[in-house]
Amino acid sequence: MAIGTTEVISTPATQSTGPWRTAWRDLRRNKVAIGSIIVLIVIFAACLAAPLYASQVMHLDAFTSNLDGTFTVGGVTGPVMESSTSGLGLGVNPIGPTWLWNNFFLGADNQGRDVMSRLLYGGRNSLVIGLVSAILCCALAGLIGIVSGYFGGGLDAVLSRGLDVLWAFPVYLLAICLSVVLINQSLTIGPITLNSGSIILPILIIGVIYVPYVARPIRGQVMSLREREFVQASVGAGATDGRLLRREILPNVLPTLIVFLPLMTAINMLTESALSFLSIGVQPPDASWGTIINDGVGLLYTRPMVAIAPGVMLAITAVALNLLGDGVRDALDPKARLRGAV
Amino acid sequence: MLRFALKRAVAAVLVLFAISVLVFLIFFATPGADPAARIAGRNASQETLAQVRESFGFDKPIPVQYALMMRHLFIDRDLTSFVNRGVEVIPQIKQAIPITLSLVIGAAIIWMFFGILMGVAATAGRGSAVDPLIMIIGVIGVSLPVYWLGEVVNLMTQSRLHDSLFSWVPPLGYAPLSDGVGPWASHLIMPWMTLAVLYAGIYARVLRSEMVGAMNEEYVRMARAKGISERRVLWRHAFRTSLIAIVSLFGLDFGALIGGAALLTEVVFGLQGVGKLTYDSLQNFDLPVILGCVMYAAFFVVLANFLVDLVYALLDPRVRHV
């Protein structure tokens, strides 16, 4: 955790416990937060093991369609795509959950692929996109908020109006606009080329759209910090802008950014899944929890587990992240007020 | 006050202008495909492409292109879909508005009721098991993907429990209010509740944190010292001051939802609202419709922002002098 390793910032002039250490101690005492961390670690580890599960336990590639595949349970072999028994008997249905660890635990999807393997692979994308875009968002927002709040003037006016415009844009629509243009073609910026299926695109899009939600409170905080006595004292002692930013402003803003991180990760994961559900996030044959729910919609009434399982995973992860976020906030900044709605 | 309102109105128009420029740039000035091809859709013929290029001035400088586009959108209002040949965009949006309004207003009533109830109950129950219990429910509400919840609701009401508990739930879709309140409401009750879950969770959490803050203020201690009952302190003092945060949040959320943020709920429940229109045009890459929907959405969000500012200034005179 970043919280434990940032003592660099507080100067241990006296032997008092620093604010970071106090916060870490508070967090460790918070049973809900620790429970959330454990849940997140378990989910993360399981998703990391996705290739292992697919190749060693399931023995089936999770990305190629498997319409002619067979499965064997208890010595009986059958096709993965069974002929439908309901209605007119037309069409085929993928097999449902077998609840056997090594054999279509959650059943197959409409391509005959193992849902459990795809769930684990999809979790990797969902978690990575959520986390990386949250880090990107907090870093960008921190930069904009600090620069805007500290230097003020014309720069602040331009940046603030820019944030106003982004703020007035419903996030899903902004994401849709960007995705429509970017996802369906590859993008070349200078020497870098991003392929249309690359998960870097959703990371960039989601990271950018939430910047105002974090940058605005940071800007306000920096503006009020500037007027505080300890900053004024530093100014009076002849500190340069660089030193003020590094030694006075940043250490006071960092806790707020860290509080935002788990909350933004949860929100970004949900946004990613929604975009993928709308087929403008992660592109097939790649998976994320959102695309699997989308795959499951067509099978909802016959094989509901395809759609239910990834939703449950998303919900558990988001609850854990939100509870962790509450714990981190209580530990770091008891007075923090976050804009709850995103 | 009038001066303040005028200033805010000018700012709102500027933001709207900036958004329209931003949307225009995203769609037509990003590197890659030919803008005419984007408008005309996939597999458009050479003649259509030439016609679009002419009509939108894609061979002219970008400011001219922008002006022509806005003219098609707002003055001539003749922007047409190329995917569904000749269908005009603006009437489609107008048709979708009542459905979105029905969905969002109903959901808003439900989420305000439950959000306030949960927030106040959690504040009143501090120190007992009630508070953490309600807050856990709130966190779960915030963490459920709304479209997934909608699918699960459909699974239960349309299939698994349709023969018993939910036999009264009609098939997915919308019934206009002119068909009577009964059919209208029964079509919408599940979408209302699904959409309300997320926001009830958010509002309960925000209201609780505001009210707990207010309960530590001096005027609350003063009220208690005067011997006012705890219930009255809770509602008349703590709740009323916390309401400001809720009102401003509500304005923004309501505007965003009317503007199409209810998209996922509309898609899942097959309601042909503005969000569904955006979604459908997204599926077949019908850019003129997407453009129209986004501009319409931006208009409502900016309007909501403006109204929130006005209400704020009415409630709190200090704001007017900033």
Task: Tell me what the structure shows.
The complex is a heterodimer of chains A (342) and B (322). In chain A, strands 1-2 form a two-stranded antiparallel ribbon. A two-stranded antiparallel sheet of chain A has the order 3-4. Chain A has helices at 19-29, 31-48, 50-58, 115-151, 153-167, 171-183, 200-209, 211-227, 229-236, 241-277, 289-297, 305-332, and strands at 70-73, 76-79, 81-83, 92-94, 187-189, 192-194. Chain A is elongated and about 85 Å long. In chain A, β3 and β4 form a beta hairpin. With 342 residues, chain A is mainly alpha-helical. Chain A has twelve helices and six strands. Chain A has one domain: MetI-like fold, CATH 1.10.3720.10. By secondary structure, chain B is an all-alpha fold. Helix content of chain B is 75%, strand content 0%. Chain B has helices spanning 2-28, 35-40, 46-56, 62-75, 89-124, 130-143, 146-160, 181-215, 218-225, 230-261, 263-268, 274-283, 287-315. The longest helix of chain B has 36 residues, at 89-124. The model of chain B has no long low-confidence stretch (mean pLDDT 84).
Q: Name the CATH homologous superfamily of chain A.
A: MetI-like
Total number of helices of chain B: 13
Strand-pairing-aware structural class of chain A: mainly alpha
Low-confidence stretches of chain B: none
Please name the CATH architecture of chain A: Orthogonal Bundle
